[in-house]
Amino acid sequence: MAAQFTPKVFAAVVLAIAGLLAATVITTFGIISSSRTVQNYGTVKTINVGVYWDSGCTNATTTINWGMLSPGGSSNCTFYVRNDGNYVVRLSMTTQNWNPTNASSLMTLAWNREGQALAAASTVSATLTLAVNANITGVTNFTFDTVIAGTEQ
Fold first, then answer.
1. Angle of CA points 55, 80, 151, to nearest 5°
2. 24 lies in some domain
3. How far apart are CA 102 and CA 138, in angstroms?
4. How much is the pTM?
């Protein structure tokens, strides 16, 4: 014989389910509303290099004036690179934004610190050498940007 639900039984079941849901919601909100403060500390790894004119790293290098260069000649510029981060970096140098653009194929910029590891808070002297092709023509003035980078090892 199958059970039959009368309107009273159905109402009682609905009220029981609603009561259980209400109790669950109240219990859940009680758990969600509690909190605990957890203190944090640590070190954030930073990778940053600075370029300076002096070994004390107080006079930042922002421009280099190469002066008058002759075809086939070269010029050197010495400065200091400091690892201002807290992690060992590998140094690299690139150029960009040559003006005129063809100057990049008629001049070569090199340096003596490519690929060198530099410990955190360490400073090293570096020398850039700008060499001019002996057959350069059509370039009387030039500009370009030098990018000194430190990359995580």
1. 135
2. no
3. 9
4. 0.72
Query: CA angle 107-108-112, nearest 5°?
Result: 155
Q: Is residue 111 part of a domain?
A: yes
Supply the CATH number for residue 139's domain.
2.60.40
In a domain, 41, yes or no: no
One digit per residue, the tens of pLDDT, for the chain of length 153 reads: 566 667 776 666 666 676 666 666 555 555 555 667 676 655 555 678 999 999 999 999 988 999 999 999 999 999 999 999 999 999 999 888 998 999 999 999 999 999 999 999 999 999 999 999 999 999 988 888 898 999 987
Query: Residue for token digits 């403060």?
Result: 37
Instruction: Please name the residue that has the structure tokens 């400065």.
Output: 79
Would you say residue 17 lies in a domain? no
Task: Count structural domains, the chain.
Answer: 1
